[in-house]
Amino acid sequence: MTQAFRIENEGLINRAKKLSFKFNGKTYFGYEGDTLASALLANGVHLVGRSFKYHRPRGFFGAGVDEPYAIVQLFRNGETEPNIKATEQELFEGLEAKSVNCWPSVNFDIGAINNFLRIFLPAGFYYKTFMWPKSFWYRIYEPFIRKAAGLGVASTKHDKERYEHKYEYCDLLIAGSGPSGLAGAYAAAKNGAKVILAEDKPRFGGSLLTSDVNIGNQSGKDWAEGIIAELKTMPNVVVKNRSQIFGYYDHNMLVMSEKVSDHLPSTKKYHPNKRLWYIRAKEVLISSGSIERPIVFGNNDTPGVMLSSAAKEYLKVYGVLVGRKPLVFTNNDSGYETAIEFKKHGVDPVVLDSRKNSESEIIDEAKNLGINIKNSYVVVAAQGYKKVKSADIASISEDKKQLGKIENIQCDCICVSGFWTPTIHLASQSGNKTKFKEEIDAFVPGQSKQNEITLGAANGVFSLEETLKSSFTAGSELSKKITENDNKIAIPNVVEKKSSQHDKFWCVPLPKGKNYKRFLDFQNDVAVSDVEIALREGYRSIEHVKRYTTLGMATDQGKTSNLNGLQLVSEIENKVVPAVGHTTFRPPYTPVSIGAIVGREVGKHTKPTRKSPMHSWHEKNNAVFVDAGVWLRPRYYKRGNENLFEASKREAKNVRTNVGVCDVTTLGKIDIKGPDAAELLNRVYTNAWLKLPVGKARYGVMLREDGIVMDDGTTTRISENHYHMTTTTAQAANVLSHLEYYLQLVWPELNVNVVSTTEQWAGAAIAGPKSRDLLRKLFTNLDVSNEGLPFMGYMEGDLFGVKARIFRISFSGELAYEVNVESHYGNFMWEKIMEVGEEFNIQPYGTEALSTLRIEMGHVAGSELDGRTIPFDNALEGLVSKKKDFIGKRSLQRTAFTAEDRQRIVGVVPLDKQTSIPEGSHLVKDDKAPLPNPKLGHISASCWSVEYDNPFSLAILKDGKNMIGQKLFAMSPLKNKVIPVEIVSSHYVDPKGERVRS
Amino acid sequence: MLYINCPHCGMRSQNEFSYGGDASVKRPELNKEVSDQEWDNFVYNRKSLRGKHLELWQHISGCRQWIKVERDTVTHEIFRTFKADEEVA
Ligand SMILES: [Zn+2]
Questions:
Q1: Which residue in B2, B27, B66 is closest to A740 by CB distance?
Q2: pTM of the prediction?
Q3: In chain A, what residues touch B60 (CB-CB under 8 Å)?
Q4: ipTM for the whole complex
C-alpha cells in the first residue's frame, strides 16, 4: 500500500521507521510518530465510523483531544479497549483498530436507516419513545440499540496491565507545553522552583509546532525544542509528555493520567500501562491553549469537513495532505495559515472568508501567493455521502441573513475555522467563575478561586508576544514568592504575522427550500433543529437543554459544540450568551481508563492481608483460610477428604471431649495505662469496673451513645494502673478511635493512655475439659488449679523460657485459657502447645468450629452485635449497671428500647432435627400468609450442634422472651426453603455455665 | 482531596484523616439529669450548615489526635485548625 497523501520534506515523523497496522481488517503502513488518524489519512482513509444516532458516515474532525468522530475499538497485545480517539492513539507496529457504531460494517450500516427516518428521531426522541411501553425497553429497544449503536465493547477479560498511582508535590504545576506553558515553566525553573510541566501530546510545543512564527531569531518549533531540552537538564524540573491533567480538585490537588505504554506494541516488563499522578501544587499555571470552533453549515458532518487547524497539524506534524482540492471556510485569519501551508506544498486551495473585507499581513501573504480568496462567501452545504465531493457555496449579505445564488464547486475537503475557544475546563473545575469575553465570543477564566492562573490562548490571549510576556512574568513572579530567587530572564523578540478581527458569525442560514442537517454536536448528532425543538417545547435552562438534546454530553464533552450551542440558544431566546451561561465543567477533561483510577488496588490488593505469626504453621497443616476483616484465619484444618462440615464438626467435638487450640491473635488488643484507667473503663463499659482486683479479667459490653451495642470483650487488670483490653477482630480500630475520642475531647481530665497492641501479642485459646492438664505441663512452675487460677483469673508465666500471659477466659463455653506471648514467639508457643498437647489428643480448630462452639452456648458475636441491637436484645441486660452512668446509658430509656415485646435472642431448632436453617432466614408465624408475610425475627447464626448432633441456630426474635416453646417457620426465599422450627433458649448447651468454672 | 493542617504534624492529605462530625456538639455531663429533647439533640440532631463549620477530624494514619477544623462546607476552604483542647475563639 502506498501512502498516497504523504508529502516529502515536511512533518516530525520518523520516516526511517515504517510501521504496519490494520484498520477494519485491512493492512496499511505509516511511520513512527504517526497517530492512527494521521496514518489513515496518509492512506486516504476518511471513513472511520458511524454517528451515534443517525449512523451517518464519520471521518476525522480534529487532530487531538477535541476529536468528536474518530473513536475506535483498539486491539493491542491480545487485549481490546473501546473509546480510543484515533487522533490521540500513537501508531505502533501491529496496531489493530476497528470502527464502532456500525453494524454489520462501516460501509454498509443498517443503523443508517435512522438517517432516513430522522424525522422520527428529533431531540428527546429517546425520552419520548423508548420510555413507553416500559416492558418494550428490555425486550426490544435496548437490545436493538445496544447492537446497532454503542461506542465500542469493553473487554470481558481480566486486565493484565498494571496501573500505578503516584503522589507528588511541587511549587508550580504547568498544564500544557505551548508557548505560555514553556515560558512560565522556564521562568519558574530558573528561579529554582520545583516545577512539573505536563503535556498531553507526545510532542512538546503546542501551537509552536505548526505556526509560522519566530522567537529569538529561531522558528517557534526550534525555540520550543531548545527550552524543553534545557528544562530536562534541570534537577528541579519534571517534564512529562503523554500526560493529561484531567481534574482540578480541592486545595490545589490536580490529577494527571500519564500514558506510559499506550504508544508501544506491548507494555515493557515492570512498567505500568498508565500512571495516575496526584499532584499537590502550590501554584498552578494553566496553559491549556484553545480549540478551534467550527462554523455550522449544511451537512457539516460529512467526512472531509474538518477543523482548519487540524488540517494544518496533519500537514506540519505528520506530512499528510487531508485533500488535494481543499476548500477553506473561515471567519478569521487562521484559515489563511492553513491555506498558505497547502499552497506551499503545491496544492491550490480556495478560501471562503465570511468577512466582507479583511486586511492583515497574513492575508497579504496569501494574496501574494496567488491563493483564490472569496470574501463575503460561505459554504451552504457539503455534498457527498461518505466523503466530501463538492460544496454548495454562496455569497452572504452583511447582516448574514441573505444568501446569494448557490454555486457548486468541486473540493475533496472543507477546512473550517470559526475562531478559537479557550480551554477553560481546569480553571472552571478549580472553582473559578468564568466570564464571557465579547471580543472573542467565548468564556475565559475570571477571578481565581484557588492558587491558579490561566495564561495565553486559554485566557483568550491570541497574540504570541503578549502570551510570552505575561507567561514569563507569571512564572517568575509566582516562583519568586516561593523560592525568593529573582533571576531575571530576557524576554525574546517575537516575529508573528499580525491578525485582523474575526467575524462574529457562526452559523450559515438554510437556503430556501432546503432542509440540510446542520450539526452542533458531532458525536451525539445534535443539530440546530434539535435545539430549536427543545426551546419550542419549553426548555430554558442551558443545563436542561443539554440533557434533553444530549448536546455536549458525548465522550468529547462538547469541546467543539458547547459554544455554538450557546450561541444558538442566545439567538433564539434573544439573550446575550453570558446570560444563557455555560454548563458546568466537570472532571475528567477527557475519558480516563478505569484501570488507571483503580491503580494497584485490584484483587487481593484491594485491602492489606494480615497474617498471624502462626500462619505458616497453619499452612503446613492443611488449614483452609477465610477472610476475617483484613486478617486471614484458618477456617478449618482439612484431614484427608473431609469437607468443611465434617472437619469443623470433628474439631468442635474434640474441644468438647478433649482439648483444642485456636489462633486468636486477630482479636483487637488495647493497652490502657494511667491512674484513671479504671474510671475510663467504668464510663466506657455498661458494667462496673472500679472494684476489679489486679490479676482478674472481666467481660464487658460497650455501647454507642445511641444505646446500640458497639463491641464486647474481656479486659484484664495486669497491675494497679495497667489494663489489657480485648475487642472483636472487626471492631478493633473503631474501639481505639472511640476511646481516643472520649479521652481527647470529652474527658481530657482523665489521666489515661491507650495504644493498640493487637500486633504485639500472639494469642492461642486452649479449650476443652483437658485444657488444665495441658496447661500444667506447659507451665510446670505455676499453680493452675481451679483455686490457683480461677475462672476470669490472670497470671504471668514462663513458657519454656518465654514470658507468657495466661487468661482464664472462655468463648467456647468449655474450661478454657488464652495464652499470649510476644508476637515473634507466636510460632514457638503454638508448636509447644501442639507438642505437649499430643498426649491429650489436642487438635487445632478453626473459625468454623469456634462459631459452632459459641453458637450452641448462646454467646453473642458480630452477627448478633450487628449495629441494630441493644444489651437486652442480646440477653446482656444483666451487665447494665443501674447505679453508674456510662456511654449510651441515657438512650436505653427510649420508648422503643423498653417496649414490652422488645426483640431478644433465642435458640431455634428445626422440628425434624435434620434441616440446617440458612443464616438470614426470616421467622414467620404462618408460612402460607400472603406477602409481605410479617417478619417476627431473623436467624443470625447457624451451626450443627456437636453436643446434640442436630442443627441449632440463634435468632433475634420479637418478644423473644415470651416465645420459648413456640412453633414458627424459618423462611429463606433465597434458598427456597421453608423450615418448621421450635423456639428454645439461646443457651442450648450448659445453660448454667458450669463447665467454664469447673 | 482536602489538604488539612494537623496542628501536631503539619499539612497532610485528607486520606490520612477520618471525619468526626460537628465539633460544637457537647456531651451532657455524666450523672446529670438530661431531658429527652436535650439527649436527642446531642445524639441525633445536627444542623447541616452552609458555610463556615467547625468540625472534628482524627488524624488516624498520623498522630491519632482528634483535631478541630474550621471549614467552609460550600467551598471546602479551611480557615484554621485547632488541637482538641484548644479554645476556638
Ligand atoms: Zn497529626
A1: B66
A2: 0.89
A3: 737
A4: 0.98
